[in-house]
Amino acid sequence: MSYRIVVVMGSDSDRGVMEGALEVLRDAGVECEAVVLSAHRDPERLRRYVTGLRSQGVKVVIAGAGWAAHLAGFIAAHTTLPVIGVPISSSPLKGLDALLSTVQMPPGVPVATVAIDCAKNAAWLALRILALLDPSIEPLIKGKA
Q1: How far apart are CA 4 and CA 118, in angstroms?
Q2: What backbone phi and psi angles, to 5 degrees, belong to 5?
Q3: Among 47, 63, 68, 88, which is most buried by a count of CB atoms within 10 Å?
Q4: What tens digit of pLDDT does each residue of 34-70 get?
Q5: From CA 109, how far away is CA 113, in angstroms rounded?
Q6: Distances (CA, A) of 53 to 3, 5, 19, 81, 125
Q7: pLDDT value for 145
Q8: What is the pLDDT at residue 142?
Q9: Distance between CA atoms of 125 and 110, rounded to whole angstroms?
Q10: How far apart are CA 116 and CA 76, in angstroms?
């Protein structure tokens, strides 16, 4: 399949959780890319990366981060692609801070948000979005509802 999903992590320490999304996507045979980019440490690099995604054929972005977790919102502010946020439980608040930061976006900057540490559901949601573009993807997600 030619559809691309990008999985962005705010830190390499998020990889353990985000590997769940990559596993689902690889098992489905959907082309994906995983990158580590921080909205806090290098916002300009992340902005340049995100604004070029559409021209590269990317259809959906999955963004996972812990603590204040501005990653998904930052990405959603710089693209019109669907963004799915994965709050990660790496903070003393066990991900509640990440959940609230990810889900509380202002009007016009939507971020679909899954449960804390639930990267697999983010991948399943991304596949459902892709199935709107290509019905041949639907058999990959049947029985997962």
Answers
A1: 20
A2: -120, 135
A3: 63
A4: 999 999 999 999 999 999 999 999 999 999 999 878 9
A5: 12
A6: 12, 10, 21, 9, 19
A7: 53
A8: 76
A9: 15
A10: 19
